[in-house]
Predict the 3D structure of the following.
Amino acid sequence: MLEIKNLHVKLQDEDKVILKGMNLTVETGKVHAIMGPNGSGKSTMSYVLSGRDGYEVTEGSATLGGKELLDMEPEERAAAGLFLAFQYPVEIPGVGNMTFLRTALNAQRKARGEEELSAGEFLKLVREKAKTLKIDADMLKRPVNVGFSGGEKKRNEILQMAMLEPKMCILDETDSGLDVDAMRLVADGVNALRAPDRSFLVITHYQRLLDHIKPDVVHIMADGRILQTGGPELALEVENNGYAEILAAHGLTEAK
Amino acid sequence: MADALTAGPGFVPERKAAAERLGAMGLPGRRDEYWRWTDPATLNAPDPKPAQAGEAEAPLFDALDRLKVVFVDGVFDAGASDDLSLAGVEITRLATSAPGWAEGLYGTLEATGQVPVKRPFAALNTAQATDGLLIRVTAAAAKPINLIYVHKSETSDPILHHLIRLEEGAELTLLETGPAGARFNKAMEVDLAKGARFHHIRIQGPDQERRAVTHIFARLADAALFKSFTLTFNGVLTRNEAFVEMLGDDAMAHVAGAALGDGRDGAFHHDDTVFVTHDGLRGESRQVFKKVLKGGAIGTFQGKILVKPGAQKTDGYQISQSLLLDDDSQFLAKPELEIYADDVKCSHGSTTGAIDETALFYLRSRGVPEEDAKGLLVLSFLADAIDEIEDAALKEEIVARLEDWLARHRS
Amino acid sequence: MQDADIREGVDRETVETVQNMGSYKYGWETEIEMEYAPKGISEEIVRLISKKNDEPEWMLDWRLQAYARWVGMTEPDWALLDLPKIDYQDLYYYARPKSMVEKPKSLDEVDPKLLATYEKLGIPLKEQMILAGVEGAENINLEERQVAVDAVFDSVSVGTTFKAKLAEAGVIFCSISEAIKEHPELVQKYLGSVVPQTDNYFATLNSAVFSDGSFVYVPPGTRCPMELSTYFRINAENTGQFERTLIICDRGAYVSYLEGCTAPKRDTAQLHAAVVEIVVLEDAEVKYSTVQNWFPGDEEGKGGIYNFVTKRADCREARAKVMWTQVETGSAITWKYPSCILRGDESSGEFYSIAIANNFQQADTGTKMVHLGKNTRSRIVSKGISAGQAQNTYRGLVSMHPRAKNSRNYTQCDSLLIGDKCGAHTVPYIEVKNNSSRVEHEATTSKVDDDQLFYCRARGVGEEEAVALVVNGFCRDVLQALPMEFAMEAQSLVAISLEGSVG
């Protein structure tokens, strides 16, 4: 599904290299987790994949279902099936959540040459999805993320995911700032969306999210690349021993 | 221009006084502080610059049950207008009547509004207006009145003056639509008695070449409500002044505006000049002005909250913001507070900048194409101003107009 | 000292000051024999001042040009000030102590009466001392806390301390009259290059008749080894003070400069029209702090200084940095807008201000931030406090020119009203001419918070002290931007200035 090969990325305005030959393959239907200390380049990777400005790819490639992602505009990537759940979802005052979702959904459908949904069909769909995800109808009426609690924002991200039905979902530290209950709700939402044709890449700093979203593969990332890959037990190992050992094995020390 | 004394049948002393006021102050020049960012030359000139009428726009508020009053290039069009009769409302024309209730009131609010800052075009208007409506509301008006200004002649130079008096507890919604003429000088005096409620919604546009200088003078008695919203797009030059005096206690005045201009269509210069005076207890005022500018468009805002001595418990707020969609446009603002009472809560804010890149990326990452995403963010930016419209149906119509404009002005 | 200690010290000081409060404590007069130029202004007077200062021809020409221009100018009337008519022919434009006619060669030769004057003001002109009036000063490392002082008395500088030590570092610190003679190349190059002779009515008047002031030059790469300060004292009656300060901070250099001002209590108003020019070159940084405590007039609004000041810094090259901090508590009328021209790319300007107006004082003050270079930054924090029947106006300009891409401004102006007879006003001008820059302006006006007052009083703090404490909290952002000695002094001034404003 997602294939990253030898990806090198630097900041556009500075001579700071962030990804230094990153390789990663996420198979269709699998859940991969990336863990790593702060500053390892995890978030940068998610931004580069989804096409945020400010980064320069100096080498390498990233493909989604065989198509080169890095040449596409952000909206083309979304239409191709990529979804990034933001660590800090953006507030957009004055734009209703429903309007936003419908605009996004129909834009993607149009880009894929599919029929746009009528207002009625859309409404039905969004109510249905909100219900399965236990999202308050009230949240749909409010402006995008404005005045939402941390948990509500993250659940809104999951609702968008459910509506847009992407093939490849990247969750960027979705657990950050959530208490245990909120995290469980979000994880339940993600689990409900697991499907044989949908892959996930869960970026997290802590193992606790992975108790709820069980990964098939765990990667440890530091210094802009994947250092080690293993099964779920690797996450537990990090939880118990921290990153120091793994870092040391690769000649790195933990950043301050 | 019509002679002051022959313009209409009545208000001769009032018109004479206004002509004297104008004579004493003269027309504004570039060096006037109040005109530092807007060149009044084309408004001052004896003749207007020719302006072609734009394509007729889709009719506004068509679905709404309203009383239509049509002026074509400033001339009353009886055929296109509804009967000037409405339950709870007396409506006559300035050109043909001088009802007793209006005597001694016509021009009074304008005269008050000349202090502390001169507004010569308003005095000119009072002296020389050729027509307009005299509206007295004694109860809740059965439906809104819609003034429709049609622009046909390339050289029309209409001067209209409306005088509106809401008696105690009366209510009226007034809609104004259309470009009116090549150069439009309009003044509106709104006198609100105790507990009266006045809603005003105006859409200025869509002619590209038109010029306009407009004034609203409002006076609020106890617990009166005044709410005005203006949507402007296109126009070489628009200067909208509002002078609102809250004399009574517990009054509420909200003045809002959204202006969108693309200089690539021709010049766009939009000026909102607002002066709100608190002279009663517990008054609440809001000034919410937003501008979306591109292609060398210029937006200016001069806003003031004046809190007079003794106007305690005032709650005054003012926000002026502009979104510059490209590097050529300009925003010039002077948001002022002048406060002579201590137990008040007054604040203002002003921001200028480009579209928020993070929000743009967020939308695009959800599959919304860049131009649509920008459109959504423009609507988001304008939301606070549009929210000042209370009526949901009217609001929807305004938003539809905005969306339409945005769709036609992509980069 | 830790920040927390300073803060606590400041709060304690506030309470103590209020408890011991007398009124304006610098209102006494020094009895000293003076020499005056004839009253009034004319070309002859301009020539006379130039001659008294023993000036070269070019300086006189410059003054005369300014005078010729001034004659045709009119006083500005745009400020929110009720400006009494000033009779410019009824003033002395030059007054110096007779003992200063023969310039003393060193501080030891200065008239003891003059030295005593500064001693009494808390500014001893002795090199071993630091700025006095600071509680706990004895605990401070003296080497670190030395402050060089240029003392200006009416129209002349009476002496400058630490000149030798500064010269070792290559720093020139002297009176401007001396600089005109000793460093003409620097003065000629920079004088009038930031505030042109014809800039405005008062600056032009100053250009014609300035009598003295301070001059600073910090050479490239030099961190000025101590803080520099000028202390202005108006003593003589019916005399205008027109001082001129020129500071040049060369590439990569740094200097912190302090300015203080006081004058005796008098029934008649006196004019003070100063010009300060600062030139900041590449990577250089200047901090300029003022505590302005001119006599504000009495409780009935009689007397006081009319303070018309033009202060401007030019960040002429890349990454130049200027920070203005001012505490304006004195003067009957203040008209003052310390400004920054952000010409160099990535240059930055900051303005922190506390302006207090009590009784019949009128203040119209603020700043201009003119962004010309790319990636320039500015920040404005203004705290205005009005009490009694005073009027206090913040007036400012933030201008982003088309070329000033990616620049930022943030402005916060807060006003506090004490009593219902005073006024607080905000008049900002914002001009943005490119879209990559971001400008944010916020302003609030409120009264002293009743809950805060009640809370203080419930803990046993008296009403006046409570107000002073609350005001102190309101001003804290700005007080913290001041050098420590000034923070203390400013703090007590805040309290004194508000005397009698409650009840």
Notes: The first strand of chain A starts at residue 2 and ends at 11. Chain A touches chain B through 31 residues (CB under 8 Å). The CA atoms of residues 118 and 124 of chain A lie 10 Å apart. The domain at 2-90+166-249 of chain A is CATH 3.40.50.300 (Rossmann fold).
